[in-house]
Amino acid sequence: MADRIIDHYEHHAAAWDADRRAADWNDKPWHDRFIKALPAAADVLDLGCGSGVPVARHMAEHGLRVTGVDASPTFIALCRERLPEHEFVVGDMRSLRLARRFDGVLAWDSFFHLTPDDQRGMFDVFARHAGPSAVLMFNSGPHHGESIGEYRGDPLYHASLEPDEYMALLDGIGFDVIAHVVEDWVAAGGRTVWLAQRRLHRTA
Fold it and tell me: Where is coiled-coil annotated (predicted)?
């Protein structure tokens, strides 16, 4: 099921974009918190950027410079059309190696579609692309396990590690947790959220 994620989103790209734009943005408070933690005009790497709405557009409207990565060519085409002054790349975030570092790294509603082993590998990706004092935000499940959801009649894979393992992985790449809320129904639509910042003395 995990191997179908890229094809799933490309197949449903138009429907997903329409549904996302029509839905209430119930996780906006966390994105506002992420933006406030960044310096003005920060460079942000948005991993699994989708169609760019509402998240990338919101960051752009706050003066951030967005580099978005998504494996769906349809999503990236929509992003380029909507936010032509920003950079969008078709690519698999698991193997990403951009020759740049960023003030912020975001993996929202994307990271949790990876297998547990691929999630562990993502912390090297985060470290390669995070600049000094970079802010990182992603969401996960509340505990270790795999689950199969559904979208438009097709199965949709999700996975998570244990919270203690996320803590250890973040510490291993030099990040301190700023905030962590499990199943935040008030500000994230029930998502489990991690917000962390790189310690100044640590480099990848």
Answer: none
